[in-house]
Description:
By secondary structure, the protein is mainly alpha-helical. The chain has one domain. The protein has 13 helices and 7 strands. It has helices spanning about 5, 10-30, 45, 55-75, 80-105, 110-115, 120-130, 155-160, 165-170, 180-185, 200-220, 220-230, 235-245; strands at about 35, 35-40, 55, 145, 160-165, 190-195, 230-235. Strands 4-6-5 form a 3-stranded parallel β-sheet, sandwiched between helices. Strands 1-2 form a two-stranded antiparallel ribbon. The chain is globular and about 60 Å long. It starts with a helix and ends with a helix. About 30% of the residues are buried.
Amino acid sequence: xxxxxxxxxxxxxxxxxxxxxxxxxxxxxxxxxxxxxxxxxxxxxxxxxxxxxxxxxxxxxxxxxxxxxxxxxxxxxxxxxxxxxxxxxxxxxxxxxxxxxxxxxxxxxxxxxxxxxxxxxxxxxxxxxxxxxxxxxxxxxxxxxxxxxxxxxxxxxxxxxxxxxxxxxxxxxxxxxxxxxxxxxxxxxxxxxxxxxxxxxxxxxxxxxxxxxxxxxxxxxxxxxxxxxxxxxxxxxxxxxxxxx
Length: 245
């Protein structure tokens, strides 16, 4: 059976996508923001720069990416297409993931701890790789897009010639080592199914990662000292005021 006959109708897709992204927006609003400020801005408190003339850039750079995600999710009433909505969210989330990853690299957080506590970063990165670098995916015919919690997902899987899900992404989009094998999997294929991870779960896990970033700095003076001199501009606001004069 053709996958498009099993998947959503256009009317059903619009209703479901709006509902999904509304739920994701509510979650992000409640967990990524505190008093209408990104939770990641608490890094200013951790570095002791809040309310002083000094400025730490980490909080602001993380906040920029946080607002990009927020401003997209708040348009949930305009979302009606799985491919568009999920692709846009994943790319915007990836911008924040890159910033968090860079921060964790600077403090040299152990790989074991990172793999256990920041799993969502790798998940989003792999999906972003798939979207940015589709490789053999461009050789498929009218792939169908769905998401993991769709009530017909088992039926879709059963009728798909190829299923692109988290396992597939991890296998073929972590690096280029399996590109030849990937081309054999996808070349000239139809009834290809792409299963995105549920957006609400991704948002929840990403918010948790943001909170953990704040805790790592707040609770660890060693990590704080590693990045403080590289991210804090002393008398930044004083110099700004004097330049205006």
